From TrEMBL:
GO molecular function term, any single one: DNA binding
Entry-linked SUPFAM superfamilies: Bet v1-like (SSF55961), Homeodomain-like (SSF46689)
Protein name listed in UniProt: Homeobox-leucine zipper family protein / lipid-binding START domain-containing protein isoform 1
All residue ranges annotated as the Homeobox domain in the record: 14-78
Entry GO CC: nucleus
Span of domain START: 153-381
Keyword Nucleus: yes
Coiled-coil regions listed in the entry: 88-115
Pfam families xref list: Homeodomain, START
InterPro entries tied to this protein: HD (IPR001356), HD-Zip_III (IPR044830), Homeodomain-like_sf (IPR009057), START-like_dom_sf (IPR023393), START_lipid-bd_dom (IPR002913)
Length: 492
């Protein structure tokens, strides 16, 4: 029998005399062209190729068959090798990420041990000392969660750059340091196939979440996606860039106004007045960090907006590091004070839970990046059922339509025409042109409709449920009240 080799495309075995025949470069080129047209030709097709291609006329069909077998074998080996190299790169990067996380945890343990010794020493001395002002100052000076009041800042370019640099420092201390005590989010086990390493805050002001993960996208593309918050954050109504200031290091300082939809009819929506700083670190990492603008003077400010509660974003952002072999290692930190005092007490767990923030915002950013990365790597997908970008856009549109109807803002064209007051059923209508584009505005008999208006009836009902039943990655016994909505939309 003939010995076949998958490594040599220029040789083939002759099954009659056991000799090897070497193809000419022209013959190999012709066969490669035919392979890309049809990698597995039938016997009839192989004979036809010999008749139609003069340069292959002296080759027998049996030899052509062997060449195609070897070529398919090499292609399979190449794909498997590429796959294994990609898996190896991913595992290597994840291992590096886990080592950095282990480093951070060790520093946090050391810091907690030092603080514990400090508190123990001063607690013992405080029991013997008088409770004068100097003693109280000495005891409280070492508290980990002490609040620092920053002096008012000038909102000139130099003042804003000072705020930006301070924001960068505080964000990095949360992303890679021990400024916040992070605990692993229940149910989120790190690994090569997981969405990433997800953690939530413990005992800090407001709610905070952090995620570390790998994505197969260039860092500049990651920054572009994450800055477009309305495209991936379902609750984001709008982000307006009001001013852009270039910095000496090639970065930018932007002033933003952002609005978030309310998740329930029982609470007002939230808005933010933000500074966003984009820069490149010395190691080549890209960083985008944000914080609410407060305590500024002699400069731009955003007055309160009707129907919105001004929430605060504490230093948050994204740290994107290029990964060896392509892709990026990303760290995300979300830290907010959503002003839970402004909602009914039964809804406050939604605004005071770091787990909710992680599920709705932090993990949503990672999922968006992973989905786009998969779409980029699958360039030849056809058919509606296999077009994730189109399905993602449809999902975003449906979610936005629901949020618009739920919040019923007048500047989106909604107006209330009825509310029974007893069962909390509200009737709204919307006649804006963008709600009617593409609709068939006529009755079945062909006559035009009398009124081209979208009618929405919405009602809310409180249900007592467990958080773990909604956010499947949590494990908690807390209960809260959620609104369930029935919002049918009809045209009349």
């Amino acid at each position: 029998m003939m010995a076949m080799s998958c490594k040599d495309g220029g040789k083939l075995g002759n099954m009659d005399n056991g000799k090897y025949v070497r193809y000419t470069p022209e013959q190999v080129e012709a066969l490669e062209r035919l392979y890309h047209e049809c990698p597995k030709p039938s016997s009839i097709r192989r004979k036809q190729l010999i008749r139609e291609t003069l340069i292959l006329s002296n080759i027998e069909p049996k030899q052509i068959k062997v060449w195609f077998q070897n070529r398919r074998c090499r292609e399979k080996q190449r794909k498997e090798s590429s796959r294994l190299q990609a898996v190896n790169r991913k595992v290597t990067a994840m291992n590096k990420l886990l080592m950095e996380e282990n480093d951070r945890l060790q520093k946090q343990v050391s810091q907690l041990v030092c603080e514990n010794g400090y508190f123990r020493q001063h607690t013992q001395s405080a029991t013997l000392a008088t409770k004068d002002a100097s003693c109280e100052s000495m005891v409280t000076s070492g508290q980990h969660h002490a609040t620092h009041q920053h002096p008012p800042r000038d909102a000139s370019p130099a003042g804003l750059l000072s705020i930006a640099e301070e924001t960068l420092t505080e964000f990095l201390s949360k992303a890679t340091g021990t400024a916040v005590e992070w605990v692993q989010m229940p149910g989120m086990k790190p690994g090569p196939d997981s969405i990433g390493i997800v953690a939530i805050s413990h005992g800090c002001t407001g709610v905070a979440a952090r995620a570390c993960g790998l994505v197969g996208l260039d860092p500049t593309r990651v920054v572009e996606i994450l800055k477009d918050r309305p495209s991936w954050l379902r609750d984001c109504r709008a982000v307006d860039v009001l001013n852009v200031l270039p910095t000496a290091n090639g970065g930018t300082v932007e002033l933003l106004y952002m609005q978030l939809y309310a998740p329930t009819t029982l609470a007002p929506a939230r808005d933010f007045w933000l500074l966003r700083y984009t820069s490149v670190l010395e190691d080549g990492s890209l960083v985008v960090c944000e914080r609410s603008l407060k305590n500024t003077q002699n400069g731009l400010s955003m007055p309160p907006v009707q129907h919105f509660v001004r929430a605060e974003m504490l230093p948050s952002g994204y740290l994107i590091r290029p990964c060896e072999g392509g892709g990026s290692i990303i760290r995300i930190v979300d830290h907010m004070d959503l002003e839970p005092w402004s909602v009914p007490e039964v809804l406050r767990p939604l605004y005071e839970s770091s787990t909710v923030l992680a599920q709705k915002t932090t993990m949503a950013a990672l999922r968006q990046l992973r989905q786009i990365s998969q779409e980029v790597s699958q360039t030849n997908i056809t058919g509606w059922s296999r077009r994730p970008a189109a399905l993602r856009a449809l999902s975003q549109r449906l979610s936005r339509g629901f949020n618009e109807a739920l919040n019923g803002f007048t500047d989106e064209g909604w107006s209330t025409i009825g509310n029974d007051g007893m069962d909390d059923v509200t009737i709204l209508v919307n006649s804006s042109p963008d709600k009617l584009i593409g609709l068939n505005l006529s009755f079945g008999n062909g006559f035009p409709a009398i009124s081209n208006t979208v009618l929405c009836a919405k009602a809310s009902m409180l249900l007592q449920v467990r958080i773990s039943n909604i956010f499947f990655d949590t494990a908690t016994d807390e209960t809260l009240s959620l609104n369930c909505y029935y919002i049918p939309s009809v045209r009349w």
